[in-house]
């Protein structure tokens, strides 16, 4: 140790992040560091320091850590100390090392770049690991809540609580639902007459906003006058779709009377009359997003979203691009634009919105109805849904029974309008 500036210590059951070297090159350790964990299990909330780095307050596990030369003797003495120390596992050296964190500046990679594999332990006589296969700590997850959002400079969501009312006062009536329909299209809608009838019946209860690839074509049809100013050159499966959707949402939120926002494509049609949609939104005004988390999503979707650097596995979400957001969820998503972090993944429009809500701590299990708002029929093992030309009585019945409000994919030649599902 006399000739070294620092030493790096590994245990034999360590697992390394697949991008270990690349991630380490991006981390700058402060000059005062004494202990540096490549991965650990925090028992107290750490403090953000910089990209990929936190200051550890009290952390366990010694599977991969570095010791700076000036602190070597003190640390070795601490690891060797046994007498007079109360510890659940007397042979667990990491507990003694953790006691030195208040004296020695200690830093750690976050997310973890090294962690313990699932192997038999000499300490407890059984196979276990303190970490998920992705390297997230299993113990004390609450101490890490909101940490990644803070490191991304994304503040936790402060949702408003209803004011307490005096007993004799009747609760205020919720605002009457008003819907912003946010069209992300190539040109005009495929069924302008259906949409025109739907919009006329709704009157001032709905507003149309659009982001077309061809502004000229859109301005010659139903979408005339609805095209927003902010424009992005969009491509399938690209981050440009997320940015176009965010632009639509920003424009829609400017209208303070709108309570909800629904994304729609040119092949989308309403399959419920506005009176029914309004009644349903009065009864249950929550957002409608049919999402899966990291535990229930398919391997394909996990492979996609793991390319988003530093996004905790607990915040991974997959959902349809076509969803309905209430005003609170829309504001939560728009407060911080971190779309650039999703730019290197495939099909980010099916991950961004739900993942950001989870990252910011939006109460999704309370305020999101886990329900499809737009019906669609998928081809087996296909990335694209089926186009439906002929609408049979059986399909019309299925659309009538569907608990959501819209359906796709109906091209211009489709006969879906013959059933007048959008009329009272």
UniProtKB/TrEMBL annotation:
GO terms for cellular component: membrane. Keywords: Glycoprotein, Glycosyltransferase, Membrane, Transferase. It is found in: Membrane. Its main location: membrane. Pfam families: Branch. Signal peptide: none annotated. InterPro entries: BC10-like, Glyco_trans_14. It comes from the Bacteria. It is a single-pass type II membrane protein. GO terms for molecular function: glycosyltransferase activity. Residues 156-178 are annotated as: Disordered. PANTHER family: CORE-2/I-BRANCHING BETA-1,6-N-ACETYLGLUCOSAMINYLTRANSFERASE FAMILY PROTEIN-RELATED, OS06G0661900 PROTEIN. This is Beta-1,6-N-acetylglucosaminyltransferase. It comes from Luteolibacter luteus.
């Amino acid at each position: 140790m006399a000739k070294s500036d620092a030493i790096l210590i590994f245990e034999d059951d360590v697992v390394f992040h697949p991008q270990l070297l690349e991630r380490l090159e991006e981390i700058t350790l402060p000059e005062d560091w004494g202990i540096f964990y490549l991965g650990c299990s925090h028992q107290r909330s750490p403090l953000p320091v910089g990209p990929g780095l936190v200051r550890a307050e009290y952390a366990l596990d010694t599977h991969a850590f570095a010791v700076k030369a000036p602190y070597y003797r003190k640390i070795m003495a601490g690891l060797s100390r046994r007498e007079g120390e109360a510890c659940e596992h007397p042979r667990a050296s990491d507990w003694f090392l953790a006691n030195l964190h208040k004296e020695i500046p200690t830093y750690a990679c976050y997310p973890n770049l090294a962690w313990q594999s699932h192997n038999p332990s000499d300490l407890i006589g059984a196979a276990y690991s303190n970490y998920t296969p992705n390297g997230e700590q299993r113990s004390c997850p609450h101490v890490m809540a909101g940490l990644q959002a803070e490191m991304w400079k994304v503040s936790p969501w402060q949702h408003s609580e209803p004011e307490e009312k005096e007993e004799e006062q009747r609760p205020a009536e919720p605002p009457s639902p008003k819907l912003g329909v946010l069209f992300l299209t190539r040109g005009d809608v495929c069924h302008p007459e259906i949409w025109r009838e739907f919009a006329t019946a709704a009157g001032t209860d709905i507003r149309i906003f659009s982001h077309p690839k061809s502004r000229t074509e859109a301005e010659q049809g139903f979408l005339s006058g609805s095209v927003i100013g902010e424009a992005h050159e969009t491509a399938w499966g690209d981050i440009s779709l997320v940015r176009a959707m965010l632009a639509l949402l920003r424009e829609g939120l400017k209208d303070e009377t709108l309570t909800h926002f629904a994304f729609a494509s040119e092949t989308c049609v309403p399959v419920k009359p506005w009176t029914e949609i309004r009644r349903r939104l009065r009864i249950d005004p929550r957002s409608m997003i049919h999402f899966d988390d990291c535990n229930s999503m398919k391997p394909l979707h996990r492979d996609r979203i793991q390319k988003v650097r530093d996004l905790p596995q607990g915040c991974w979400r997959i959902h349809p691009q076509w969803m309905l957001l209430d005003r609170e969820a829309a504001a939560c998503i728009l407060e911080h634009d971190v779309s650039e972090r999703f730019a290197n993944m495939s099909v980010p429009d099916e991950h961004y919105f739900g993942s950001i809500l989870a990252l910011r701590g939006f109460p999704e299990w309370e305020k999101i109805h886990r329900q499809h708002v737009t019906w669609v029929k998928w081809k087996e093992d296909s990335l694209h849904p089926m186009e439906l030309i002929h609408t049979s009585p059986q399909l019309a019945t299925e659309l009538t029974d569907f608990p959501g409000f819209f359906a796709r994919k109906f091209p211009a030649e489709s006969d879906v309008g013959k059933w007048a599902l959008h009329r009272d």
